Amino acid sequence: LKFGGSSVGNAERIEQVIRIVKNESVRHQLVVVASAFGKVTNKLEQCGQLAGNGDYEYEKLLKKIETLHMGIVRELFPLQNQSSVIADVKLLLNELEDICHGIFLLKEVFPRTHDYLLGFGERLSGIILSSLLNTRGVKMNLLDARKLILTDETYGNAQVNKEESYARIQSVFNRIDGHAFVPGFIAASPSGKMTTLGRGGSDYTAALLAAALHADALEIWTDVDGVMTADPRMVSQALPLQKLSYEEIMELSHFGAKV
Ligand code: ADP
Ligand code: ASP
Ligand code: MG
Question: For the whole prediction, is pTM greater than 0.70?
């Protein structure tokens, strides 16, 4: 099951995700893939831009990212479970701050740094969502996507080595019991450098895992009822399509349909 940024945008939506996963977890062995919360990847991108231009405003944006994540933790976790998640989240946020400060000092965002920066969104949401599921009684093994998906070093739009990735995925999943949680979007090069699969890449993460594991089904959960006759944000009468060929969906995606 893959949940996009729009379906993990706030505490209420996350509650919905928890309900869906909980329901499904009784009947199936699950691999849950999630994106960064809401528009966090865009915010990270903006942080990099501001810091790279030597603009202190990046600090305000970092504060917003922190407030968003801490707010979600405080709203969703029972008090007695908060401290360990907050500690993990804080550790990542501190590292993010250091990276941005580094960019600020250098006044340049190198492609490799850019990928590392953008990957914080999925690392943060991964820690929060997997611990939340554990607290709510759905035991999740949080896996490191960088150990599962191997790419070249084309930062920003890395090409996946499918053969090697499938082998790694299969060998890791052979060793775990029960449900797994994998952050979307991020991967690593053969030398271990973090890469990303391109914007919107969490769908691809989920597809790679489903293919490698010969999953019975791959479900992409988002904020619309499927692929529709038009973008429902623009056309209110749009209807969900019951069936769509690979050619049609490829054409849609080539022309930039976000879905
Ligand atoms: P996320 O990855 O955040 O879950 P998606 O990348 O799947 O979200 O994009 C979903 C969005 O795509 C919808 O909110 C909708 O506005 C937009 N969209 C554009 N074209 C279509 C379409 N033909 N059918 C459905 N949604 C569409
Ligand atoms: N968070 C990443 C992005 O916004 C990947 C994704 O959402 O699929 O592009
Ligand atoms: Mg998407």
Answer: yes
